[in-house]
Design a protein that fits this description.
Radius of gyration: 32 Å
CATH architecture of one domain: 3-Layer(aba) Sandwich
Largest sheet: 6 strands, mixed
Structural class: alpha/beta
CATH topology of one domain: Rossmann fold
Low-confidence stretches: 303-307, 439-476, 482-495, 508-516
CATH superfamily of one domain: von Willebrand factor, type A domain
Number of strands: 11
Number of helices: 19
Amino acid sequence: MTLLYPSFLWLFIPIVLFFISQKQKNLLVVTHLLILALIVVTLSRPVIEEGLQESSIEAKDIIIAMDVSFSMKAKDIAPTRYDFAKETIDAFLASNTKDNIMLVAFTSNPLLLSPPTTDHVLISQALQSLRPEYILTKGTSLKKLFEKLSSMSHTDKTLILMTDGGEEISAKILAEQLQQSSLSLITLALGTTQGSTIEKEDGTLLKDKEQNLVISRINPMLEQLTSLLNGTYLTPSATAQATADALQSALDAHKKQNQEIKKMQYHYTELYQIPLFIALILFLVLHTRASRYLFILFAFLGIQLQASIWDAYYLHKAYNAYEVKDFNKTKKVLKQVDVPSLQSQFALANTYYRMQNYKKAIALYQSIHTTHAKIKQKLFYNIANAHAMLQAYDKAKLYYTKALQLGKDEDSLHNLKLVALLKQHKDAGLGISHPKSQNSDTSKSMSQESKEEKTQSHNEDQPSSGSGSGGESKEKKNNEEEKKRLKMDKEVQAQPLSSKVYELINEGYIRETQPW
């Protein structure tokens, strides 16, 4: 067991001090202090930690590329182009709480500041840790940025490009380069057509080799590039927040569908209900007349509540084991459930089915009683599947027919036709194949179906025997490719940024011919 918010335990100090200061420690005072202590424990969120688990969330994939070249110090957009870009990104992250976002900084070379993540606090911290004064390069290379993005795997992603220009290169060439990466483009042009001088660290203005003042203007090529890609071209609004809102509106207008993002999350079983419930019992015992009867009632309910909490924990643990096809562990955990329920019995029957103990599975399916037509149909369907696996085709036909009598079901109809054919082959002494069997979603779907008796929601439990080691190997390979995708450069260092990281940006400095 662990505490999610242990800082609340400091509240025990005034409780203990008050207890010590009391000369007469009567039962009433002690009980009230105990109630306060239980509330403190509740606030600290006691949980049983189950570790990291992969879960799927729906989110858009977004790449934010921010220009950090020397020209971004221009003040035609207050306070500077760079500071305005940072404020806009912070505002965008604050209003966009669920999308999967990657943050890239670039000058002559791109640098990954944050890999794709839904934890926007980490992205903001990575952005704040960047120090432009340590960046020596003054040029802006969209070509190298697009080359790096094209080398990564992208599917239905959006690039938000924040820059004031780029090298002198054809917009058509850049558009063709970006099209190869299947990215849609939203451009935030940070600059004005009038332009601005650029102030150096010592307060003087930047000059070229002929000692003429350097004026940095917005590159008109950006609008042409965005148009070629059918993207959205934006200019800064009055405030960073308004600009962030415009970016979000442009993002929504692109109508990119949410993708299923795999994310590692900590999972817990909450225990805060126990101390809170005990505190409630003590309070009612002290301040109600029928305290004797309430104590008996709440004691009984408390036992039931505790049993219910542990049963829910065991069910959750069993579902996790079922998903990874550890059926022996699933069976062992389900045996620990004190009060058998529809969910636990169905999950246990599915487990026996997956372990090819079809007779035991049939017995368990038949022991489940329900008045819900959809669940009963599913029971008949699974019983029929088990009989089919035992080559008891007459019984299988009977239960498929019962399932179809309760409503239309394509799988039952398909298997009914198949077992009829299999019976003919068996009678003729020919070889047989097997009907559709159960897949690994069966057990988890029953958690939803148990709620269906109240909510009428239904998640079909369709068996399938086609999930083998080949699929798992492919999934593992895809996961490895995904991990590689998160790294734009092998030498990327952990945040905060170190001097080594800035060397990645500054690489190629001496080859610049037009550094602003």
